[in-house]
């Protein structure tokens, strides 16, 4: 679509968000984008980041569903590693004031398109875990879907939460019960955080529920 700020093919994807089907801007060929990134890395190109954000992961749907249990109306919410923005948009639709962030600009352009189509407003900006700060008041809720898939991300995630999470707030993370998610659960045991875990079942694959990891300062 030539009228967009994106340098890759994209389309509108009907997605169940906050209980209704809504259109999200999504990359049309995420597998091809990943293969291209791997090729460029193999050729020695610097600064190439794997575009895992290009896919709407099931973990975002699980986090969306879990938000029915969270008091969001009138609350400020920060989403980290937002990708297509599914979880953050779900929070906005439940009455939250949201800041949606990712470590690179491309997914944020998708998010801006989706927000415009849905008639929603949010602060959308680059935030690299452990490096950048929003510069505003801390958030009562931080959201992250599929942001624990790399061990290298864990210290930055907690560093960002240390700065951005308000006292008494909670960070809600989701993953499809990957083995590395189990490792994250063990890794965080000796950190100053309380960890609680719940499961959310989705209709598309009830035999593989999504794990919700709820973290609060210890």
UniProtKB/TrEMBL annotation:
Molecular-function GO terms, alphabetical: methyltransferase activity
Keyword S-adenosyl-L-methionine attached: yes
Keywords for the protein's UniProt record, in alphabetical order: Methyltransferase, S-adenosyl-L-methionine, Transferase
Gene3D superfamilies, sorted: Vaccinia Virus protein VP39
GO BP, sorted A to Z: methylation
UniProt-listed CDD domains: AdoMet_MTases
Cited Pfam families: Methyltransf_16
Annotated family: Belongs to the methyltransferase superfamily. METTL23 family.
Annotated protein name in UniProt: Lysine methyltransferase
């Amino acid at each position: 679509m030539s009228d967009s700020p994106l340098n890759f093919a994209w389309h509108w994807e009907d997605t169940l968000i906050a209980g209704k089907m809504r259109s999200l801007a999504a990359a049309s060929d995420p597998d091809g984008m990943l293969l291209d990134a791997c090729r460029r890395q193999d050729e020695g190109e610097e600064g190439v980041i794997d575009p895992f954000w290009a896919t709407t992961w099931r973990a975002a749907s699980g986090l969306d569903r879990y938000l029915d249990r969270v008091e969001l109306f009138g609350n400020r919410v920060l989403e980290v590693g937002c990708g297509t923005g599914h979880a953050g948009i779900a929070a906005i639709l439940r009455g939250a004031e949201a800041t949606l962030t990712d470590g690179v600009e491309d997914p944020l352009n998708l998010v801006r398109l989706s927000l415009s189509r849905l008639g929603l407003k949010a602060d959308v900006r680059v935030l690299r875990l452990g490096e950048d700060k929003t510069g505003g008041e801390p958030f009562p809720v931080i959201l992250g879907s599929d942001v624990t898939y790399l061990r290298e991300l864990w210290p930055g995630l907690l560093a960002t939460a240390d700065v951005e999470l308000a006292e008494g707030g909670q960070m809600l993370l989701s993953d499809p019960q990957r083995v590395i998610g189990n490792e994250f659960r063990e890794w965080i045991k000796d950190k100053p955080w309380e960890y609680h875990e719940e499961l959310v079942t989705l209709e598309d694959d009830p035999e593989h529920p999504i794990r919700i990891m709820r973290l609060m300062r210890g």
